[in-house]
Amino acid sequence: MFRIILMLLVVSTSLLALEAQIFHQWIRSNPGGGGAFSTIGAGPAAPNGGSQIIAGSDLSGAYFSWDGGQSWGVYGSLQGLTNTHVSGIGFHPTDADVFFLGVDGGIYKSSTGGGYFYQVFPDGYITDIQVAPSQPNRVYATYHTYYDSSEELFCVPMMRRKLV
Asked: What is the pLDDT of residue 23?
């Protein structure tokens, strides 16, 4: 009798697991790619009314979504990024087409919604970028002089330089 109950319990548990696999499948919604994601940010509303999201990758540039994460694309070397280890993101407070990507070799700016990037600051490992909300022509960033995970001093203030 004990064996029959145990057998029924095993069969019913197996059927429940099978049902869970059939009816509750996960759907991948991330952009894919390799490496780790080191930073993420959400910018102002896009011209189409969508929500702008950018996730920086340590290997393949930055992944972006202009529809709140429903679909994804990539900003990389085809858009002018010569260094694709993205570690900082900064958004213009009102213009969704203008944003900055910090890499381990400076800062890149796009004023075309990611269509093309050009380098505006050539030095350092950039870890954070903020655009002043009341003065969007003022951009602040933190950086290392170079990337070294054992470096004790993590953030060194950037010298004043016009980026916009």
From this structure: 54
Q: What is the pLDDT of residues 21-39, one digit of tens each?
A: 555 555 554 445 557 888 9
* Phi, psi at 75, each rounded to 5°: -100, 125
Give the CA radius of gyration of the chain. Answer: 22
Q: Which residue has the tokens 């499948």?
A: 25
Distance, in Å, from the CA atom of 103 to the CA atom of 106, rounded to the nearest integer, reads 6
Closest among 146, 149, 62, 143 to 109, alpha carbons compared: 62
Question: What backbone phi and psi angles, to 5 degrees, belong to 107?
Answer: -130, 135
CB-based contacts of 150, cutoff 8 Å, min separation 6: none
Kindly state the average pLDDT of the residues 139-157: 61
Given a contact cutoff of 8 angstroms between Cβ atoms, the answer to whether 163 and 108 are in contact is no
CA–CA gap between residue 147 and residue 49 (Å, rounded) = 37
Question: CA dist 79 to 44, 153, 154, Å?
Answer: 21, 32, 29
pLDDT tens column, 112-139: 999 999 999 988 889 899 998 998 888 8
153 neighbors 164 (Cβ within 8 angstroms) = no
